[in-house]
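Backbone geometry:

***
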Amino acid sequence: MPNAIPERVFAAIPPAITPSALDELTKILAASAAEADATGRLSWDSIETVHEAGLLTATVSERFGGREIDFGSYVDAYAAMGEGDPAVALVALMTSMQHSAVASGVTWPTDVYEQVLQDSAKRPVLVNTARSEPALGASERGGQLATTAHKTERGWVINGRKAFVTGSELLDWHVVLIALPDEGGLARAFVPGNDPGIEVIQSWDGIGMRASSTHDVVYREVEIPDEHLIPSTGGTGPAIIGAMFGIGLSAIYLGVARAARNALVKFLNERVPASLGAPLATVERLQDATGEVTAELIVAEEVLHSATTQLSQGVEPDATRIAATKLISTRASINVVQESLRIAGSYGLSGSGPIQRHLRDVLCARPNPPQEDVAIRRLGINSLAEAHWRLNNSTLRDNNA
């Protein structure tokens, strides 16, 4: 029976979420971020650090022995990871979302999730959903899936190709969204990452998030038992899942923005031109420019924390408001990094400095769902519909008066 997982099957690692612990985590991840970016290889040492900090499993349900950190700590943790190495943070977020889904009642095969929890007590376990496909682009824009499963005497056989599978090379489990041509409808197939029918195609050539291992994955004649295939509507699941994904992404990119602002501040304090005889930080126009980016960063962080406060108070997640939060946060993040690079001048563009890397990374916020045009259209439609409803109700009341 799916999700019939025994209670307290997991000895959770206490999440390290104090300010000092998160500062230390940022420093450790940042130490290898430049090399990971240069090589395009995800740092396994950094993944282990996140695991040891208890953050890969911080959203495991208390029913299974998890700690379920509060929303505010969740945002602080992902901002700290994003400031250190956003590629690592993105991979961790994908795994975190899987645990959140189970905690919210999304069905998983019992034996698979038990195995994930048991292994997570000993080592990092990475899981992600494979949704997008090369011919479809972003999954939330619809389209017919080409990845399929067909029934056999022993279970199911899966064939197809998925795109943009973050963490692809190191995943322990793939949750593959598939079509069922013979039966009709969609399903989620749970595939172990070491299945011989899986091939990771080194397709990710983005200029940002280079170490996120967001490659294509091909599934050839992958066999799974009956119980490892769960019927699906293809939706995003409970509203809280979308909310946690949106605020997690927002936190990561605001972390990148803070890293860029901090790099700018460090440069302005350390650079002493001979013609000035004092640090650049003493120049009033540079002080004003730095104040502008700092103010924008603080406001965006406040917007994000306001959203998490509402969630912590039990307010039902509003997909439109979460989309607006992500929109505001990522726009601010991009602008803060761009302005930091502009203020830093030649240093900002230097390949040996970090700001150009932060700019490449933060620009990856744009294609992450909900994408900007989708969020804006949703906000517009909902606002117009709400205004129309109010106008009609007002007219109805006037006519009945």
Notes: The chain has three domains: 19-125, 130-232, 239-389. Residues 239-270 form the longest helix (32 residues). The longest strand covers residues 156-165.
